[in-house]
Amino acid sequence: MSELGAQVVALDIQERAIQSTQQRVEGRNVTLHCMSHVTFPPLTAPPRLIVYNLGYLPGGDKHRTTLTQTTLLSLQEAERILAVDGAISITCYSGHEEGEKEERAVLQWAKELSSSQWLVSHHSWLNRPHSPSLLWLRRSGSPDKGQYVYFDLT
Q1: Does residue 150 lie within any of the structural domains?
Q2: Alpha helices, H only, the chain
Q3: pTM, whole model, 2 decimals?
Q4: Do 2 and 56 sit in the same domain of this protein?
Q5: What integer best gives the mean pLDDT of the chain?
Q6: HSE (CB half, 13 Å, CA atoms) of 8?
């Protein structure tokens, strides 16, 4: 996204994820934060895209995962700050106990969004149990001047 001119703000609670990403994005328009996704860093404009990659860090400690409670708090904040005509992408991993619980809660949250303000799509592989699923949420309305792209690096 940064190569396309977007200002990217990315965060993760694990320093290892930040360090790994820093090496890959050196010299690009990317700001990294070692912090939980439950809060967003200060932004000067509403984000146009917010991307969640839930679960645990690949190759990392599988017991250190995103948590249902903090993910729902973060999604509520994302819903509040997202630019009109912006989108939220959420990749859920249900292959572990917390991930299964988290995916059910995220799907319930998404189902309750106003259909007059949100378009919500859910993709899952029906013949591959516990494979990741993808939610795509688009806020309806007139475009504004949002310029940030926000990533959760997990």
Answers
A1: no
A2: 15-25, 68-81, 97-111
A3: 0.87
A4: no
A5: 89
A6: 20
